[in-house]
Each structure stands twice: as C-alpha cells, then as structure tokens.
Amino acid sequence: MDISLLATAGIMILAAYIGGRLANLIGLPRISGYLFAGILLGENLANLVPKHAVAVEFSWITSVALCIIGYGIGGSLEFKRLARLGSTIFWITFFQAIGALVFSTIAIYVALRLFGPSEMLMTNTIISMSLTVGAICVATAPSSVLAVISETGARGVYTDILLGVVALDDGVTLLIFAAVMALIQGILRPEGLNLHTLLVPLWEIVGSISIGCLFAFLMSKLLTGIYEEGAILKVILGALILIAGLCPHIHCSPILASMSVGCFIVNYEKRHNLFFQSTDPIENAVFGLFFALAGAHMDFRVLSSFWHLSLVILVFRFLGKQFGVFLGSSVSKTDERVKKYLGIGLFPQAGVSIGLILVGAQYFDRWIGELLINFVIGSVIFNEIISPPLLKWCLTKAGETTR
C-alpha cells in the first residue's frame, strides 16, 4: 500500500466520522452518513477514491469488516435468552425469512426481465442475480432497530418479539446466503447443477460452522485466565483476520465462520461480555471505512438507469416480511399487535445487506456485480431514510413507547 492509499484511507475514515455525526444531527443512523461520505469521495463527485482502489487495494478492509460483523451477529445468538422468548420468535423468524427470500427473488427476476438489460443476460445469470438479492433481502438492520427502541424507551411484548426476531434474523440470513452463493456457482457453470454442486452448499455451511467453533475453542483456551481487553482484542482480531484469509481457499464462508465464533463465545465462554467489549474500540473506525468504501461503489449513471430495481427491492422485501410475519403470528397465535406491526418493525436494512452484496457481486462479471451493488445500496439508502420514522410509528401504535 503506497502513501496515496494510506492518505485515502485516512481521508475516508475522517469523512465517515463527520458524515456519521451529521447524519445523527438530522435524525438518521450513522451508517447513512458513512455511505454519503463514500459517495461524496467516490468517482461521481470528488473523485478521490477510484473504483480500482475500492475493488482491489481496499478489499482486505471489506473482508475483515465482514468478519467483525459476523462475529457481532453470533454474539446476539445467546441460546438461553432466545429460549426464554419462546417458539413465537422461531416461527416468525422462519416465515418472514422465507417470505422475504421468495417475494424478493421472484420480483427481481420479473423486474430484470422487464426493465433490466435482459438482452445482455442469460437466463441462468438472471436467476443467480435474483437469488443473490433475495438472500440479502432476508437481513434486518439491528443497529437501526436498537437505536429507535433506545430513543423511544419502548418496552413490552411487541418490543421483546421484535428484538428476538432481529437477533435470529441475521444469523438465518448468513445461512441462507452461504447456501445461495454455493448454489449459484453451479447455476452459472456451463454444465449446470449436478450432485457435486448440490453438496457444495452443505459443505460451505457445515465447514464454516465447524471452523468457527474450532477457532472459538482455541481462542478460549489460549486466553484462559486473561482479563486484559487489549490482549483479548489481539487474539480475536488475529483469529478473524486468519478466518478472512483462510476460508475462501477451502470453499467456506468467512462471515458464517465468524458468526460461529461469536455464537460459541457467547454461549460457552464465561467471560463473553469481555470478549465482545474488547472489539468496541476498533469497530467504529473499521465500520466507518467499510461503509464509506461501499458508498464509493455507487455509480450515478447505473443508478439513474436502474433506480426502479431499488424500489422493487424496497417494496417486495417489505411485502415478503409482512406476509411471513402474518403466517408466523397466526401459527404461534401471538399478540394481534405483532401480526399488524412487526413487518414494518423488520423494515430497516443496512450493514449486513451491504456487506453481503459486496461479497455476492464477486461471483459475477464485473459490470453485473456493479449493477447489483448499485441497486442494492440504492434501496438501502432509501430504506435508511424512511425506516426509522416508520419503526417509531409502529412502537407508538403498539403502545409501548415511554418517551
């Protein structure tokens, strides 16, 4: 990395910090500010961050940030706490995930046929693009949900179920995404699907979880008797970077393996609070740079031509989640307020979706990957603007806000 790349990284971290603060001042999540900072510095406007730098020189930042995100998601999957929330959480999580996947996949397939550059795309490519976006649409943004709940002081049945579903949802997303990524490799190959390509998703999921649990076990043993956050941070960061570099070479998912590390730690390590607190000092800087880089991917020419695809994602992802919540609530016979308003509560979409589309884009030709990145990030930007007030409205209608 030369001095210009180091300077660019420094500028992006500072710009992300300023963007995050400004976003908070106008009532938006920090991630929106990070994205806008990247858009400002990208080739569309200031042109300080060329696309080749985003795609190549800074690719390791993306890999490490995704592993940190996965580690944090795993940390929310505490089995005892989830069990206390009951079967309602599992039914709703299952149906809303399937709803978002199916509705979004079909909608994007139809939209690409009607509005996309379908004459330049083969059917197997369109199917693969649709499945990729559909898998990403399962994700919900926990940070946005937590921020609004904290701001409103919401407490009650609706809030508890919302938090439980959000905690499980991103874990389910990673499992679905890993399976879809393995599946589309078979779809995109000239020979198509066969027994080998159908077994690849199984290995990617089982192998990733096994590697994550092994790393977590070794970390726990290595840090026996250690309570210094600095030492714990070094081991965790080293392990996550190793996972980021190792997993692609053995056809495993780094983000799923990292989620397994976090899940193992939170359930089997007595010092789990210390293990997660130790990464706090680096998270903001890494995430700021990561989401600024994601914003720098934006190409206004692409977005202006295919903005309607962003709206398709926005609308049909919500419809899928709302339909899934209705089914899950009906099966589990839960509170009527949950059936009415939880779909909107699961509307926020941000960090995990952006991280996954940056991974998913790598499975396609470069121009197709850029198209996917632009209309997914476009939908996330729309989402980040409208979802916080909608979530606040839901919490108010559920009668659970205290301020």
From TrEMBL:
What GO terms are given for molecular function? Answer: antiporter activity
What range(s) does the Cation/H+ exchanger transmembrane domain occupy? 14-395
Question: Which residue spans traverse the membrane?
Answer: 58-77, 89-114, 126-149, 161-188, 200-219, 231-251, 300-320, 341-361, 367-386
Membrane topology is:
Multi-pass membrane protein
Query: Principal place where this protein is found?
Result: membrane
Q: Which domain of life is it from?
A: Bacteria
**InterPro entries per UniProt:** Cation/H_exchanger_TM, Na+/solute_symporter_sf
Matching Pfam families, A to Z?
Na_H_Exchanger
Name the GO terms of the biological process aspect: proton transmembrane transport
Q: Which GO terms describe its cellular component?
A: membrane
The identity of this protein, by name, is: Na(+)/H(+) antiporter
